[in-house]
Amino acid sequence: MVHPSFSATQPHNEALLCSICANLDFYQIFLNGIPETEDIPLDNLSSILRKSYQCNFCRLISFHVRRMWMLDQFPPIDISGIECRMFTKGCGCLQLASYPPSKFRHLEEIPSFRIAGALNIHLMQEDTFKFGRPTDLHCRRVKNTVDINMVKKWIKLCHASHGDICKSLSRIGEHDKRKLPGFVRVVDVVLMAVVPAPSGCCYVALSYIWGGIGAEYWTTKDKLAERGKPGGLSTAKLPDTITDSILFVRQLGERYIWIDALCIIQDDSQDKFAQIHDMDLVYGLSYLTIIAAGGTTAQDPLPGCRPQTRTPQHIEVIQGLHLYAAPPRLKEALALSAWNTRCWTYQECALSRRRIYFTGHQVYFECQFDVLCEDVIAESKCDSTNFLKDSRAEYFPHYMMAVKQCARRNLTVESDIIDALTGVTNALAKAFGLGDPDRAFRYGIMLTDLHHALLWQHNPHTPRTRRSLPDGCSLPWPSWAWATWCGAVDYMSEHRYLPSVVEMFVDPWYIVDRSGIILQLDVRRGSRRVVLIRETEGEGSTGDVVKNPIHLFITGLFDILSASSPPTWVDVALPTSLEFIVLSHTGILGAYDEERIEYYQECLPTCDGG
């Protein structure tokens, strides 16, 4: 059935549609919708890819699939069993379900990193009047270059809607008057000079991939004096990512930007050490952070800063309607980026309160509440990925997330792993009152929750290889620290940590200091109860804690706090081996060794119910 308003153009459009797509009435589909339970079968995916040269709608689908599954960059996969079906969503778009029904699924045939979910096909804003609809939740044209006025509007909207909440990184900035240390420098984009950061200045930070040696543009001891003069920083020798970032800051009307290669003296170990250990301030206090997620090296341009530097929108005219295959959502776009594989970039993103992401297709804006983008008119209400967004949450899940993210990422110098996480550990210590970060964390392990922090495990697909120093020697770090080992690590993320107070029999706890001296730590008389959730599938499954969980157990009887202040130094003979048993009075059957006391009779003195 064809809507009469399109009869004049229908013959032309029919010639650009295959036999299957020509039988679809796109006007009626957008007008009345297709329930997901009544989705329309299209064709198998391999056939749609073959028809992309003769059918507009097949070409729209093919463009998305090739982009998201990277079919042109990696060896081909068998997609013959994938059937495509179509239904509508309540946001002005069609959704293409590109996987076969459950009983026919063989997802192991498709590498997981290349599965991007369903394809959303949007109606462009210029056609909404045909349905008597407002333009909200439909797509707009993305310009050849970034719309600076739109970016300013997003920032203004954040200020007006979120107020003080987005002025700081969750609890880190509450009632906090901290400023940048005096040794931090910034680039003055007006004077084109590297200058000490003015007190309380508003500045932008940059997160990008170096992509190899770039000594020709680094700030070094012999270049610092010259670069401190007006005009001393020449853009002629700067890579495109940095040049475009400076241009973008000027267009925003800001004056200062922090760029590591220019603001840290690269051949001064003391300057590098001081600044690396204050990354929580450098990124946490920045007005916003530019994230160059569209390139693989500093030589790549920021997509959209200059003409012809980003992929144009792919829009097809089908039965008189302008349809657009939306680019990936922010999380998907980042997952496909080289920027997301680098370890240093994790904390640069996690610590920033506002972020502007430059990807190959469009620009995204993210704050603690919103994710906005160039191609969708209704500003998204997607959940922000902001680190420490929930200030009421427990600190250990934040730590677990940071460890899991950093450990799986790549480093040019493997021994940088702890430095690359220092900003996050500093932020955690300050946000949750864990004390001196250098005492709260050791070798990347959280000492304040040591009994949980030690429960990391190697990813089963990761070879157990020690990290090495630049000279090839193994790092002299303990084997119990996750940072000692290359590759991904994991914690049991399916567990839910809930506060619980229990009686404890362990009071003293010791750790060896960096100098080799044994240090006694404080012990908090509280532990965390862990509820292992195992729900059966079916109606009413919500993901909440079930009434009768299959397993309920305790993982530890103590939490380690920061070192005693002043610390108590004790003289303890180091044991050659250690064996211990923990008993408790918790009333939870099967939770502790006391339920299996008969197995330990030979190890224990006479017990009177204890």
Structure description:
- The structure is a single chain.
- The N terminus and C terminus are likely disordered.
- The chain starts with 9 loop residues before the first helix and ends in a 47-residue tail after the last strand.
- With 610 residues, it is an alpha+beta fold.
- The chain folds into three domains: 120 residues, no CATH class; 212 residues, no CATH class; 184 residues, no CATH class.
- β20 and β21 form a beta hairpin.
- Strands 6-5-8-7-9-12-13-14 form an eight-stranded mixed beta sheet, with helices on both faces.
Helix and strand layout, with pairings?
Blueprint: H1 10-14, H2 19-22, H3 26-32, E1 40-44, H4 45-50, H5 56-68, E2 83-89, E3 93-97, E4 119-123, H6 148-162, E5 185-188, E6 193-196, E7 203-207, H7 221-227, H8 240-252, E8 256-258, H9 260-263, H10 269-276, H11 279-284, E9 288-292, E10 315-318, E11 321-325, H12 330-335, H13 344-350, E12 355-358, E13 363-366, E14 371-373, H14 395-407, H15 422-431, H16 437-440, E15 441-442, E16 445-446, H17 450-453, E17 457-458, E18 489-490, E19 495-500, E20 509-512, E21 518-524, E22 527-532, E23 551-554, E24 559-563
Parallel strand pairs: 7-8, 7-9, 9-12
Antiparallel strand pairs: 1-2, 2-3, 3-4, 4-11, 5-6, 5-8, 10-11, 12-13, 13-14, 15-16, 17-18, 19-22, 20-21, 21-24, 22-23
Protein name: Heterokaryon incompatibility protein-domain-containing protein
Pfam families: HET
InterPro entries: HET (IPR010730)
